[in-house]
Amino acid sequence: MTLTVDVLVYDGVNDLDLAGVVTPVHMASDVGAPLDLAMRGISPTIRTSAGLVVNAVGRLGGTCDVVVVPGGRGAHGAAEDPDIRAWLAGLSGRSSFYAVCSGSLILARAGVIPAGTGAAIHGDKRDLLNAAGVVPGSGLLITESAVTVGGVAHASPKSLRLAHQLLRHIAPEHVSAVWARMELLEP
User: Fold this and answer.
1) I need a labelling partner for 33 at 20 to 30 A (CA). Which of 26, 43, 166, 174 fits?
2) Where is the DJ-1/PfpI domain (predicted)?
3) Distance CA 160, CA 182 (A)
């Protein structure tokens, strides 16, 4: 069975948050994991925080097995977008959710991460997460609603740590091959 992994892209998404998760997941499909990876957004093209243009392969909608939500400067705006919130809320309870840094804010505002639950986020955005009723944290946090990573580590290692957790969940037999191919030590 092929698992579908949708990655939310939006204007201002952080390049390292995005690439740090997408690269190992894509590589897992290269080494045989039955995964279908797609970028989803509210527009066909978005501009990352560093100005790179990313093409979304599809608009928001439909179902998927896994949703990845990277953080970035545009996370606050994405968290307020009604289409993004509705799409994520519609997947709640049916999909697994993974968020890097301020991607947690987007999930919280969509109601995917319920009030009173912990989620990792960058230190200077903790007040936004707290205002959404979610308990801000750092490091790798695994709850029933989502796996989140954020805090004091740099964006790329955080994203890779989240990707490792994601691959352990959806393609455990391919994790070592992906990490070897990327010449990384498993966390």
Assistant:
1) 43
2) 6-132
3) 11
d(CA 142, CA 13): 22
Average pLDDT, the chain: 92
Asked if the model's pLDDT at residue 153 lies above 80, the reply is no
CATH number of 3-181: 3.40.50.880
List the beta strands (DSSP E) in the chain: 3-8, 35-41, 45-47, 53-55, 58-59, 66-69, 96-100, 118-120, 135-137, 139-142, 147-150
Are 104 and 134 contacting, i.e. CB atoms less than 8 angstroms apart?
yes
User: Do 100 and 70 contact (CB within 8 A), yes or no?
Assistant: yes
* Domains of the chain, residue spans: 3-181
